[in-house]
Amino acid sequence: MRSALVIGTGLIGTSVALALSARGVRVHLEDRDPEQVRTAAALGAGTEAPPDGPVDLAVVSVPPALTAPVLADAVRREAARGYLDVASVKGRPRRELADLGCDTTRYLGSHPMAGRERSGPLAATAELFEGRPWVLTPTAGTDTEVLNLALELVALCRAVPVVMDADAHDRAVALVSHTPQLLSSLVAARLAEAGEAAVRLCGQGIRDVTRIAASDPAMWVDILSANPGPVADVLAEVAADLDETVRALRALESADEHKRAGGAAGIEAVLRRGNAGRARVPGKHGAAPAAYETVAVLISDRPGELARIFADAGRAGVNVEDVRIEHATGQQAGLVQLMVQPAVAPVLTAALRERGWSIRQ
Ligand SMILES: NC(=O)c1ccc[n+]([C@@H]2O[C@H](COP(=O)([O-])OP(=O)(O)OC[C@H]3O[C@@H](n4cnc5c(N)ncnc54)[C@H](O)[C@@H]3O)[C@@H](O)[C@H]2O)c1
Ligand SMILES: O=C(O)C(=O)C[C@]1(C(=O)O)C=C[C@@H](O)C=C1
């Protein structure tokens, strides 16, 4: 792929543009908001200049409800050899495109399973898609050249292609993305009116569960409006589990020992099913869940501390597979959890200790 046109230079569009530009593709940027294009261009995502003629691939990265009309417009003005969208739902945009009378042979619906709770080009990174699944939903009518261009795009973004039927995709993301978004919002909503005494105790658990509750409501109303049935089905099952959990907790309050034992068994069953579900969440690169060992290091809140710790890990020849940071409330310090292969954890611990780092067990 030599050239691309990214239409919609927000979080996802600019991240795609940054990844393509970094790998030598000439990227043209377009957005209905000129400020977004200017920002994306200033970040090095591509050029504000329109292309001279059709580019190889147009990537439409606008909110789901606008995806079909924006795609149809791009096809009408013959902006590219192939057209791809990245909307979080796949059934409705395809049907809307067909309703608009658009030739869908040169269109491929796609969805990178990577994102953030922040919108706009300033939240974008070239690495956003690395090792993440990127769903492609070709049909029997999809032009092979367009499928190949899409596979090349996924490879350039260093993501992992996953081919799926559009409606099967929408049922899957109802479970793994759309319901989690609502549940995160529901838990965070309990905090909106909570007393300060409780809120100040927020630790890592609630931070993990509520990160995506900071997402843009307008975008999510749009996503959920295009996938209401499958999400309602999953949420109804969660609601039944919640009812049972409340009953089990009430039983734990009972004076009757037998009822208390039943309540404890009910709660344990929920927690064990949670363990089993969590164990199925794939690790990096879509591979089987990785059992990393964590080396926890105390750092002070000073510029350059993280860079120094990564440099020391690199010097010890250790590959850091994943990283998490826990901030200590009211202190200028934090705990960095470096996830590494179990075999190298002792090597890293010894090397960091030698360089003066404080390791927490
Ligand atoms: N945010 C995520 O985590 C995530 C992950 C995967 C896929 N997606 C999908 O990616 C798409 C973009 O999401 P985002 O998070 O980048 O949103 P965003 O709000 O950061 O960016 C959307 C951009 O589209 C522009 N836009 C709106 N209407 C337009 C139009 N008619 N023509 C041209 N530009 C227009 C906006 O000005 C904005 O810059 C959505 O379809 C979303 O479902 C989002
Ligand atoms: O990690 C996040 O912040 C996301 O919201 C990413 C996430 C997801 O649910 O995994 C959200 C919606 C997108 O359609 C794809 C990815």
From TrEMBL:
The keyword NAD applies. One of its GO terms (molecular function) is prephenate dehydrogenase (NAD+) activity. The keyword Transport does not apply. Pfam families: PDH_C, PDH_N. InterPro entries: 6-PGluconate_DH-like_C_sf, ACT-like_dom_sf, ACT_dom, NAD(P)-bd_dom_sf, PDH_C, PDH_N, Preph/Arog_dehydrog, Prephen_DH. Keywords: Amino-acid biosynthesis, Aromatic amino acid biosynthesis, NAD, Oxidoreductase, Tyrosine biosynthesis. Signal peptide: none annotated. PANTHER family: PREPHENATE DEHYDROGENASE, PREPHENATE DEHYDROGENASE [NADP(+)]. This is Prephenate dehydrogenase. It comes from Streptomyces aidingensis. The lineage of its organism: Bacteria, Bacillati, Actinomycetota, Actinomycetes, Kitasatosporales.
